[in-house]
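hey so i finally got around to running the thing on that chain from the lab meeting. sorry it took forever, my laptop kept dying and i had to restart like 3 times. anyway pasting the input first so we r on the same page abt which one it is
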Amino acid sequence: MAKIHRATVTQADLNYVGSITIDEALLAASGMSEFQMVNITNCSNGVFWQTYIMRGEWGSGVICLNGPPARHFQPGDKVIIIAEAYLEQSELKDLDPVVVFVDDKNRVTEIKKHAAINHGDTEPRDP
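ok and heres what got predicted. didnt touch it at all, straight out
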């Protein structure tokens, strides 16, 4: 499981078959894979979409919504991309998703494990 946090949409291609194209450098940083299912939330308008990943050129910064979601995601919109994972109940205790933070050009600024992120809690979380 992984998340790319507040990436900037660079393109929207209504005439493409479908999917989201993501810079391969972001895929490598997050551990996401081409053809993996992802959920995308548009921070600009609240739209939620599910699709699969297509690999974009390494270092290009591309975040392109292809096909129908191009009606709901426009260049400049901030999005959160969350990779799905199907787990057994027993696997949850070891789950520590990767969160990739990016700048306005979709370059990685920081990579954290979810457990290391301050969630504003006043008490430590149980492991």
